[in-house]
Amino acid sequence: MPTARIYQRAKNAMQSGRARAEEWLLEYEPSEPRRADPLTGWAGSGDTRRQIRLSFPSLDAARAYAEKKGLAATVTPAAPRVMKIQAYADNFR
């Protein structure tokens, strides 16, 4: 049975906004290990499911999809959001 991982995308560290941070992603777990190409040395495999990343508006929708397709999905909860409120004057203490 194929396995998948469901997780919530982290906020982009290079931007201040939280666009697309509320959606949930489903990725397939690799079914075979990567191996080095003898000619180029690049790592690759014949597993084409690793290229698929599906996005869902909610965790329930992602779980329903995995259940419908017969996937054994593990859910990784999002890290708690920590707000560090600081005044500009605190830089000069």
TrEMBL record:
Q: Which GO terms describe its biological process?
A: electron transport chain
Task: Quote the Gene3D superfamilies the UniProt record gives.
Answer: atu1810 like domain
Membrane: present as a keyword of the record?
yes
Compartment annotation: Membrane
Is Lipoprotein a UniProt keyword of this protein? no
Q: Which GO terms describe its cellular component?
A: membrane
Q: Which UniProt keywords apply?
A: Electron transport, Membrane, Respiratory chain, Transit peptide, Transport
Q: Which PANTHER family match?
A: NADH DEHYDROGENASE [UBIQUINONE] IRON-SULFUR PROTEIN 4, MITOCHONDRIAL, NADH-UBIQUINONE OXIDOREDUCTASE
Q: What is this protein called?
A: ETC complex I subunit
The organism named in the record is Tardibacter chloracetimidivorans
